[in-house]
Hints:
By secondary structure, the chain is an alpha/beta fold. The protein contains eight helices and 13 strands.
Amino acid sequence: MTTDQPIRVAVNGALGRMGQTVLGAVETDPATIPVGGADRAASADTVTVPGGGAVRLAPSLAGLLSTVDADVVVDFSNGEGAVEAMEAATSAGVRVVSGSTGVPAGELERLGAVAAERGVAIISASNFALGAVMMMYLAEIAGPHFQFADLIESHHEAKIDSPSGTALSIARSARAGRDGDFSYNEPETLTLDGVRGGLLGGVNVHSARMPGRMARHELVFGTSGQTLAIVHDTINRDCYMPGVLAAVKRVMTLTGLMVGLDQVLGLRDPAKP
């Protein structure tokens, strides 16, 4: 493929809300073009691309890749689905960008080795929102300079886990650059159980669930005479698309495995853990 040709993208989970958003973003970007979709719920042989025409649809990714030429597969499924997608894509010599969580680290390393053998690459990231990834980066920089930290995360009422995986990653990032845990208040009297939230590395983590909000994370550092707040709001699924597209373009230059959007953005040295 020459450099002036668009990157051919297939989407695993093409009928889901995230899959449809990815197809639309790929259609809009002049550097990429959608060529097909796979979804277990497929009942037709084509899927309409938001803002574009129709592309081939298949119930399995392996089946799709046997009929279309793709450079990259974008996967937003689950841990099991991501492993299947990575196996199917690497077997076909196709690169993978995956936002699925729940893939065991050992499996990622195995699949990354398979990708390297085939001369292709896998990028796996738990969060493709540029602001959320930047928030983790800034939290790690600021953490050593403050004594206390509280993290408040809010999501829609249907979210099944508390706190969010992103909140846990932010708390771990804040703790990562420190020699020890943050200090935290231990009240003499608790008039309501659990009011101080959960605790991770001295970071008090609080979860709110309510309609009208998709996702919000607010990290507040405190030390003598001052506080520092870092806030990230997720308004809709479009927020993930710049990160997805950046990863699609970056994976074309790699072989093997890259984990985390921070590496895609150059915020962390791939040689360092």
